[in-house]
Amino acid sequence: MKKILVTGAFGQIGSELVPALQEKFGKDNVVAMGHEKIDESYDGILEKADSRDKNSLETIIKNHDIGTVYHLVSLLSVKGETDPSLTWDINMNGLKTILDLGVRFDLKIFWPSSIAAFGPSTPRDNTPQHTVLEPTTIYGVTKYAGEGLCRYYNIKYGLDVRSVRYPGILSWKTPPGRGTTEYAIEIFYEGLQKGRYTCFLREDTKLPMMYVDDAIRATIVIMEAPLENIKVRNSYNIAALSFTAGELASEVKKYIPNLEVDYKPDKRQLIADSWPRTIDDSEAKKDWGWTYEYDLPKMTKVMVENLRREFGIPA
Ligand code: SER
């Protein structure tokens, strides 16, 4: 088979997608590409390159006979606001480079969008698949523009590029990143290690979330769906659960009864307030059979169990 390339392989999603792809297709068929962040303990084919560097990517695609690319490189919402130009450069020019190579080498491409593509003018409850997209962060602008670019490359060149709008993803293998939904990971890290957590969002802030195993499954399932089932070519809404910061804290307290949580909303609250509360994912369900498995109690349990083991904390 032609090999699979994963860019951003050592980020939050990549760290979990690469092992899942290795298990499914064999270690010899998966190439992990990192740039600044590389896990030295990684066992498999490794390439170090900047995803904006067309020549390096072209060499990697040719040398490894790549047929599929999961292009995961991205700066997230909070980091993005610290340097909008860099965020545009990495998120958009990286994507365009991959899409151009996709046309040239007939690649099948996965690229993640996000709930951040929506903005304050989008209906926040049961957000429809096709709706107003007026994001107010540079991260969201790159996701919105990226969706348009993917759709355009499909229309213009017939490129098979597929995408989902990830909600906030909860995972434990990589430390919390610089996003807005990352409060939901921080509460586990700090709760278990320090017994207290100051949340940067209000207690009643509700956002769409998903456990990483479900996100990985969505990613692989959409890529395996028959071509004719992929009807949405900008990006599919997918949903699992939606909870408030307070609801998550109550669930985590079932495992850490003495946990102290307080709420000191900062400018990240404005970002959270511009995003949906719940998502309508009926088109993903209908077109390629999307379902989720992890609800709030199940997700909380696996997060706590895995992080206790990581930190060497007895139950
Ligand atoms: N986790 C992302 C963020 O908060 C959402 O796509 O930036």
TrEMBL record:
<dbReference type="InterPro" id="IPR051225">
    <property type="entry name" value="NAD(P)_epim/dehydratase"/>
</dbReference>
<protein>
    <submittedName>
        <fullName>L-threonine 3-dehydrogenase</fullName>
    </submittedName>
</protein>
<dbReference type="Pfam" id="PF01370">
    <property type="entry name" value="Epimerase"/>
</dbReference>
<comment type="similarity">
    <text>Belongs to the NAD(P)-dependent epimerase/dehydratase family.</text>
</comment>
<dbReference type="InterPro" id="IPR036291">
    <property type="entry name" value="NAD(P)-bd_dom_sf"/>
</dbReference>
<dbReference type="InterPro" id="IPR001509">
    <property type="entry name" value="Epimerase_deHydtase"/>
</dbReference>
<feature type="domain" description="NAD-dependent epimerase/dehydratase">
    <location>
        <begin position="4"/>
        <end position="239"/>
    </location>
</feature>
<dbReference type="GO" id="GO:0006567">
    <property type="term" value="P:L-threonine catabolic process"/>
</dbReference>
<dbReference type="GO" id="GO:0008743">
    <property type="term" value="F:L-threonine 3-dehydrogenase activity"/>
</dbReference>
